Amino acid sequence: MRRSRRSGSAKTVDEYIAATPEKVQEVLRNLRRTIKAAAPKAEESISYQIPAYKYRGPVVFFAAFEKHLSLYMPGATVNKFRSKLKPYVVSGATIRFPAENPLPASLVREMVRARMKENEMRAKKK
Question: What is the DSSP letter of 83?
Fold first, then answer.
């Protein structure tokens, strides 16, 4: 699926969200707020032309497409939550969902916090 040309050239997450259709913008703003609250130490950036959050490694990415939104996390993290993700399309590290049925904030918080802990544990082992 294609993102708009403008969102592909965004330099900030604000620009990325502003370049999406209006009906999607509030869903992305809520997703962003949830991620930032769950991972306050994570650095927000644009990576691979989409919003990215990194803390001692990748934490989570999200993207808007013409017919769905996607949340990306390492597959091992996604697998831990597979039973809670049954209403959504999950493939490897990708969780696809329609803007009309976004991921629950509580689930996003739980997944992001789990990923932050994984990154911290991995960093401690080094």
Answer: G
Residue 17, domain member (yes or no): yes
| pLDDT tens profile 68-78 | 999 999 989 99
Per-residue confidence (pLDDT) for residue 7, from 0 to 100: 55
Give the separation between CA 20 and CA 125, rounded to whole angstroms.
40
Question: Rg of the chain's alpha carbons, rounded to an integer?
Answer: 14
Q: What is the largest CA-CA distance in the chain?
A: 44
Counting beta carbons within 10 angstroms of the beta carbon of residue 117, is it exposed (0 to 12), middle (13 to 18) or buried (19 or more)?
exposed
Q: What is the pLDDT of residues 47-76, one digit of tens each?
A: 999 999 999 999 999 999 999 999 999 989
* Number of domains observed in the structure of the chain: 1
Of 85, 110, 80, 83, nearest to 95 by C-alpha is 85
Assess if residue 87 is contained within a domain: yes
